[in-house]
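fyi for ur records
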Amino acid sequence: MDLPQLLLVGLVLLLGVLGVLTPGVPGTWLVWAGVLWWSLNERSALAWSLLVSATALLLVVQVIEWQLPPRRLRGVGVTPRMAVYAGGGALLGFVLLPVLGAVPGFVGGIYLCERLRLGTHGEAWASVRAVMRAVGTSVLVELLACLMVVGAWVGAVLVS
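which gave:
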């Protein structure tokens, strides 16, 4: 696969990860479509095994999300700014401490956003708890799975 096509696949994967943080955007399916596109053009054992693994992981995540309570965005004050902070924190945590760092990064991003908005530690932490109960768990599960797939894709591209 040539460099421009790899960059386009990377862009689709990035849009998928950002789509997880945006309500109504099928971020998980964009990540899967990017891996499918890469696998169809790469045609190696590594590419096909990554596609199968990503498909299994993302399907399991969909089943897990159906078991979680529905997202209630409006009631807890989730804003686009908070989604940016949470996503940036998860991405930074994922890079600094692969896979496991996404969870504290996500929560830390929400806390930072709320601390800047509300000013005190107590109010910010109460808001973080409310957000995590309302939407955080389902978004975090989906975001972590997509970051794992993207990380595996980056590793596969670097290896091949």
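The CA atoms of residues 68 and 138 lie 7 Å apart. thats all i got for now
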